[in-house]
Amino acid sequence: MVDDARRERFESLAVTLIEPLRRYLARRADPTTADDVLAETLLVCWRRLEELPGDPLPWAYRVAANCLANARRGVRRQERLAAKVAVVDPPASVVPGPGDTEAPDLDAALAALRDEDAELLRLWAWEQLTPAEIAEVLDITPNAASIRLHRAREKLRAELGARKGDRPAGHEESDEGSRS
Protein backbone atom coordinates (compact mmCIF):
# COMPACT_ATOMS: atom_id res chain seq x y z
CA MET A 1 0.00 0.00 0.00
CA VAL A 2 1.02 3.59 -0.56
CA ASP A 3 0.46 4.47 3.13
CA ASP A 4 2.80 1.68 4.27
CA ALA A 5 5.53 2.82 1.90
CA ARG A 6 5.07 6.43 3.01
CA ARG A 7 5.20 5.45 6.67
CA GLU A 8 8.33 3.34 6.13
CA ARG A 9 10.02 6.21 4.29
CA PHE A 10 9.17 8.61 7.10
CA GLU A 11 10.33 6.23 9.83
CA SER A 12 13.68 5.67 8.14
CA LEU A 13 14.05 9.41 7.61
CA ALA A 14 13.01 10.26 11.18
CA VAL A 15 15.73 8.01 12.59
CA THR A 16 18.34 10.17 10.85
CA LEU A 17 16.70 13.48 11.82
CA ILE A 18 15.66 13.10 15.46
CA GLU A 19 19.02 13.26 17.25
CA PRO A 20 20.51 16.13 15.21
CA LEU A 21 17.26 18.10 15.61
CA ARG A 22 17.11 17.31 19.33
CA ARG A 23 20.66 18.65 19.82
CA TYR A 24 19.91 21.70 17.65
CA LEU A 25 16.83 22.55 19.71
CA ALA A 26 18.42 21.74 23.08
CA ARG A 27 20.99 24.47 22.43
CA ARG A 28 18.26 27.00 21.68
CA ALA A 29 15.39 26.30 24.07
CA ASP A 30 14.44 24.84 27.43
CA PRO A 31 13.86 21.05 27.45
CA THR A 32 10.06 21.23 27.36
CA THR A 33 9.97 23.71 24.51
CA ALA A 34 12.63 21.73 22.65
CA ASP A 35 10.55 18.55 22.89
CA ASP A 36 7.40 20.34 21.74
CA VAL A 37 9.20 21.95 18.80
CA LEU A 38 10.80 18.62 17.85
CA ALA A 39 7.36 17.01 17.73
CA GLU A 40 6.01 19.89 15.64
CA THR A 41 9.00 19.69 13.28
CA LEU A 42 8.50 15.96 12.75
CA LEU A 43 4.82 16.57 12.08
CA VAL A 44 5.69 19.10 9.38
CA CYS A 45 8.18 16.60 7.92
CA TRP A 46 5.45 13.96 7.83
CA ARG A 47 2.96 16.27 6.19
CA ARG A 48 5.44 17.51 3.61
CA LEU A 49 7.29 14.23 3.08
CA GLU A 50 7.01 14.47 -0.71
CA GLU A 51 8.67 17.92 -0.67
CA LEU A 52 11.77 16.86 1.26
CA PRO A 53 15.05 17.41 -0.63
CA GLY A 54 17.68 14.70 -1.08
CA ASP A 55 19.56 15.94 2.02
CA PRO A 56 16.66 16.66 4.38
CA LEU A 57 18.60 17.75 7.48
CA PRO A 58 19.19 21.41 6.54
CA TRP A 59 15.55 21.65 5.44
CA ALA A 60 14.48 20.11 8.76
CA TYR A 61 16.68 22.61 10.63
CA ARG A 62 14.83 25.45 8.86
CA VAL A 63 11.48 23.90 9.79
CA ALA A 64 12.66 23.55 13.39
CA ALA A 65 13.82 27.18 13.43
CA ASN A 66 10.41 28.30 12.15
CA CYS A 67 8.57 26.13 14.68
CA LEU A 68 10.78 27.49 17.48
CA ALA A 69 10.07 31.05 16.36
CA ASN A 70 6.33 30.25 16.39
CA ALA A 71 6.62 28.82 19.91
CA ARG A 72 8.44 31.93 21.12
CA ARG A 73 5.86 34.22 19.53
CA GLY A 74 3.14 32.22 21.26
CA VAL A 75 4.83 32.68 24.63
CA ARG A 76 5.19 36.42 24.03
CA ARG A 77 1.49 36.65 23.05
CA GLN A 78 0.50 34.83 26.24
CA GLU A 79 2.66 37.14 28.35
CA ARG A 80 1.19 40.25 26.70
CA LEU A 81 -2.33 38.93 27.17
CA ALA A 82 -1.67 38.12 30.84
CA ALA A 83 -0.28 41.62 31.37
CA LYS A 84 -3.38 43.17 29.75
CA VAL A 85 -5.74 41.03 31.80
CA ALA A 86 -3.89 41.92 35.00
CA VAL A 87 -4.30 45.63 34.25
CA VAL A 88 -7.91 45.47 33.04
CA ASP A 89 -9.18 42.92 35.54
CA PRO A 90 -6.71 42.54 38.42
CA PRO A 91 -7.33 39.70 40.85
CA ALA A 92 -9.38 40.66 43.90
CA SER A 93 -6.65 39.36 46.15
CA VAL A 94 -3.31 37.77 45.59
CA VAL A 95 -3.01 34.29 47.00
CA PRO A 96 0.52 33.12 47.63
CA GLY A 97 1.68 30.11 45.70
CA PRO A 98 4.46 27.64 46.42
CA GLY A 99 7.44 29.45 47.87
CA ASP A 100 5.57 32.77 47.87
CA THR A 101 4.25 32.74 51.39
CA GLU A 102 5.52 35.20 53.92
CA ALA A 103 6.10 32.30 56.28
CA PRO A 104 9.48 30.73 55.55
CA ASP A 105 8.87 28.11 58.25
CA LEU A 106 5.70 27.01 56.43
CA ASP A 107 7.51 26.85 53.09
CA ALA A 108 10.31 24.80 54.63
CA ALA A 109 7.86 22.52 56.45
CA LEU A 110 5.88 21.88 53.25
CA ALA A 111 9.10 21.17 51.38
CA ALA A 112 10.07 18.62 54.03
CA LEU A 113 6.83 16.64 53.56
CA ARG A 114 6.32 13.93 50.96
CA ASP A 115 5.15 15.43 47.67
CA GLU A 116 1.80 13.66 48.01
CA ASP A 117 1.18 15.11 51.47
CA ALA A 118 2.21 18.61 50.42
CA GLU A 119 -0.09 18.46 47.38
CA LEU A 120 -3.01 17.35 49.56
CA LEU A 121 -2.44 20.31 51.86
CA ARG A 122 -2.12 22.72 48.95
CA LEU A 123 -5.38 21.50 47.44
CA TRP A 124 -7.08 21.92 50.79
CA ALA A 125 -5.55 25.24 51.88
CA TRP A 126 -4.73 27.11 48.68
CA GLU A 127 -7.43 25.79 46.37
CA GLN A 128 -10.02 25.59 49.19
CA LEU A 129 -11.16 22.12 48.10
CA THR A 130 -13.20 19.86 50.34
CA PRO A 131 -12.03 16.31 50.99
CA ALA A 132 -14.65 15.07 48.47
CA GLU A 133 -13.26 17.45 45.82
CA ILE A 134 -9.69 16.46 46.67
CA ALA A 135 -10.75 12.83 46.24
CA GLU A 136 -11.97 13.62 42.75
CA VAL A 137 -8.73 15.41 41.84
CA LEU A 138 -6.56 12.58 43.15
CA ASP A 139 -8.86 9.78 41.98
CA ILE A 140 -9.30 8.30 45.45
CA THR A 141 -12.33 7.80 47.67
CA PRO A 142 -13.60 10.69 49.80
CA ASN A 143 -12.87 8.65 52.93
CA ALA A 144 -9.27 8.08 51.82
CA ALA A 145 -8.91 11.79 51.07
CA SER A 146 -10.18 12.70 54.57
CA ILE A 147 -7.81 10.25 56.23
CA ARG A 148 -4.82 11.34 54.14
CA LEU A 149 -5.62 15.01 54.72
CA HIS A 150 -5.82 14.44 58.49
CA ARG A 151 -2.46 12.64 58.46
CA ALA A 152 -0.87 15.30 56.25
CA ARG A 153 -2.05 18.06 58.60
CA GLU A 154 -0.57 16.14 61.55
CA LYS A 155 2.74 15.74 59.71
CA LEU A 156 2.78 19.46 58.87
CA ARG A 157 1.97 20.36 62.47
CA ALA A 158 4.84 18.14 63.69
CA GLU A 159 7.22 19.58 61.10
CA LEU A 160 6.31 23.15 62.08
CA GLY A 161 6.72 22.24 65.75
CA ALA A 162 10.17 20.85 65.09
CA ARG A 163 11.15 24.06 63.32
CA LYS A 164 10.03 26.14 66.31
CA GLY A 165 11.99 24.08 68.81
CA ASP A 166 9.25 21.51 69.38
CA ARG A 167 7.70 23.33 72.32
CA PRO A 168 4.31 21.92 73.31
CA ALA A 169 1.38 24.28 72.89
CA GLY A 170 0.68 26.43 75.96
CA HIS A 171 4.27 26.30 77.16
CA GLU A 172 5.62 29.35 75.42
CA GLU A 173 8.43 31.08 77.20
CA SER A 174 7.39 33.96 79.34
CA ASP A 175 9.43 36.71 80.87
CA GLU A 176 6.69 37.39 83.39
CA GLY A 177 8.08 37.72 86.88
CA SER A 178 11.67 37.92 85.74
CA ARG A 179 13.91 40.76 86.83
CA SER A 180 15.08 43.15 84.18
TrEMBL record:
<keyword id="KW-0804">Transcription</keyword>
<dbReference type="InterPro" id="IPR036388">
    <property type="entry name" value="WH-like_DNA-bd_sf"/>
</dbReference>
<dbReference type="InterPro" id="IPR013325">
    <property type="entry name" value="RNA_pol_sigma_r2"/>
</dbReference>
<dbReference type="GO" id="GO:0006352">
    <property type="term" value="P:DNA-templated transcription initiation"/>
</dbReference>
<dbReference type="GO" id="GO:0003677">
    <property type="term" value="F:DNA binding"/>
</dbReference>
<dbReference type="GO" id="GO:0016987">
    <property type="term" value="F:sigma factor activity"/>
</dbReference>
<dbReference type="InterPro" id="IPR014284">
    <property type="entry name" value="RNA_pol_sigma-70_dom"/>
</dbReference>
<keyword id="KW-0731">Sigma factor</keyword>
<keyword id="KW-0805">Transcription regulation</keyword>
<feature type="region of interest" description="Disordered">
    <location>
        <begin position="159"/>
        <end position="180"/>
    </location>
</feature>
<comment type="similarity">
    <text>Belongs to the sigma-70 factor family. ECF subfamily.</text>
</comment>
<dbReference type="Pfam" id="PF08281">
    <property type="entry name" value="Sigma70_r4_2"/>
</dbReference>
<feature type="domain" description="RNA polymerase sigma factor 70 region 4 type 2">
    <location>
        <begin position="106"/>
        <end position="156"/>
    </location>
</feature>
<dbReference type="InterPro" id="IPR013249">
    <property type="entry name" value="RNA_pol_sigma70_r4_t2"/>
</dbReference>
<protein>
    <submittedName>
        <fullName>Sigma-70 family RNA polymerase sigma factor</fullName>
    </submittedName>
</protein>
<dbReference type="InterPro" id="IPR013324">
    <property type="entry name" value="RNA_pol_sigma_r3/r4-like"/>
</dbReference>
<dbReference type="InterPro" id="IPR039425">
    <property type="entry name" value="RNA_pol_sigma-70-like"/>
</dbReference>
